[in-house]
Every structure is written in structure tokens, then in C-alpha cells.
Description:
Residues 257-320 form the PepSY domain. This protein has helices at residues 9-39, 41-48, 50-53, 65-76, 127-139, 144-169, 192-206, 208-218, 224-234, 259-269, 327-333, 335-340, 346-375; strands at residues 79-86, 93-98, 107-111, 118-121, 274-280, 288-295, 305-310, 316-320. It is an alpha+beta fold and 382 residues long.
Amino acid sequence: MKSEKKYSFRQLMNDLHLWLGIGSSIVLFIVCLTGTIYTFKSEIQSMMAPEMYKLTEVKDEVLPINELKEFVESSYQGKVQRVSIANQKDKPYMFSVGFKDKEKKNETVYLNPYTKEVVGSGKGPGDEFFMTVFKLHRWLLLESEIGRPIVGVATLIFVFLSISGLILWFPKKIKGWKSFKPGFKIKFNAKWKRINHDLHNTLGFYTLLIVVIMSLTGLCWSFEWYKDGLSKVLGTKVFGGRNEAKPESTFVDSKTITLAEALDIANKELPFVARNISISIPKDSIGSYEINKNDLVRFNESATDRVFIDQYSGSVLKKEVFADKTVGEKISASIKPLHLGDIYGKFSKTIYFIVCLIATTLPVTGIFIWLNKMKKSPSKKV
Length: 382
């Protein structure tokens, strides 16, 4: 009699990969599909309402920023809290307006800086749809306390599936380069079972790195313990900006510098052409101007430099340059753009879209592989 074969590590990985994949397949399919849709959110919104996001009337010079601010405040009877300026000439300025009435929500105003024409306000036509996609991606449309951990556990499983999938991708017996060749290509002229296997195996290999990055960054929104642990590893608080203690202005009198003056000071401190500029205006008598700029020549579109400016004296209270940050601080600041895929603009968005689309198919092709194996009846010896 032949002795029974030992239960190998590869068999263990295969079984765990199979059953954990089946158990999490529906959740992972939903999360990956919604992630695919959400990747080009801003571009889709622009297509749905081009008049709101792209100007048709453009002149040589924009109107003074102070004049635009006063126009928005008088038109909406509120206070401008934030201004966003894009480098493109055909992009409107975005003004976030707050109101004394706390029951009234902030209003986003899209303004033509050449003519003072309001080209749009409030939510875009696709906002409600994308909010539903967002809730489905994060919480499966359940209560966040229920949906968040479910998505989190499925994401942890996805990380394991990626690692175990890489282990199973390696050939059982390695005999030079020829052993690896089948794992790099899809044999489209084979039967559909083989094609399905290659789609799962090969495409899973090619998307592995991005899938792991998306998963590991996504876990920061699912588990506090994970976010806190990552903060310790990086040496800086992940999402620390949410409760950040910002520099305060030293109150002198009621005379303050203007928005234009604050912007001029920031441009002298950060003397480069910006891809985009965002200006947060002081909310009270001790608040300071916060101005963020992203260098146009910088490939990383999420890396911003910023300055805090005293609203009375105009002195620079604090200056942060992205290039001067530690590696941990840079990674921490890039968690969100790394997860969303917009860290390198349309270049990385396109890659993420393709990867998310492929990741959406992996649970499907994996289920078919399992069904095909179930159909095989074991041979019996008489």
C-alpha cells in the first residue's frame, strides 16, 4: 500500500484561498465594482454638467480675488470660508460659503473669475449617485457600524488572497524560465475552462501590487486599531489633519489683511506655478489663513506645500514643504490619494480603473474555477 501524501503548505494555501475567496466573493465584488465606478468621479461629473466645470467665456485677466469674494458674499448673504483655484484658464473658481444660520448647509459656488458669472452652485448632477456608490463601497448601504467592519474583514481577506494567490501562481516544480511562462500569459486559443483559469491567475498576478496598496490603505477607514498601528509605524498620525491644532493669529485690532494680500504672501513663500491653490479663510478672530499649493511640475498631484499666515500682521506662522517631510509623513499624507488612485492624476487613475475592473472579475472567475473542480468526479478503481 502506498502511504498517504502529506498535507502540504501549498495545499493549505490552496484551500484557504478557495474557501476564503468564496466566503468573501460577494462583498469583494461590490467593493471592487464601486471602486471602479468611483475612480473617475470628477471626470464623469464634468461630463454630466460641462457648463458647471468648464468655462465657455475666458479673457486675458481674471478679476481681483477680493472683488470676487465680496461679490459671492453679497450675492449669497454668507461668508466665504474657502477658495479653490485651478491652474487651467477654463476652470471656474470654487467658493465655499458658510452661513450664520447653523441649520443652513454650506454652499459651493462655481464662479467665472473673468465675468463674475455664477456658472453653478450646490451639488452637481452626479453627486447623489456617487454618494450612493460611496456608501455601497464603504458600508454596503448598511449602518456604518455594521457595514464598515464587514468591508474591513473582506479587505483583510483580500490581502491574504493576494498573497496566497502569488504563492499559488508559482509553478509546483521550477525548471528554469519555461516553468514561469504560462503564468505571464492568457491562452486564448484554449478551452474556456483554461481561459477562465488564466484570467484569474495571470490577471491576478499583474494587478497584485496595486490591489495590495488599495487594500492596505483602505483598511485605515475600516479599523481604528489598524489606523493607530499604522500611525505608530509611520511615526506620524494618519488622518492627523482632521483634528490638527493650527497656528493662531495674535489679535491686534479689527484691521486684517485681505485675501489678495494673504495670497501674495503665500506666493512669495512658495514661489512656483501651482497646479491648484486652496485658501482657507480665518473663521474667527484668532484663526489664520491656510494656503495650500501643489507645484505644477510635480508628478505627485496630491503633494502640497502650505503656509499659515497671521490675519492681522501678515507674518508667516508656519510653513510646510512636502519635500522636507519624513518618509512616514509623506506616506501618511498620501494615504487617501493612494487609495483613490488620483495621486498622479489621470495617469494613476487610468491604472487604478483597469486594476479595479480586473479585481471585480477575480471573484467571478474564482467561483467558476471552483465550480469546474466540483464537476470533476473522482475516478474510482474497481
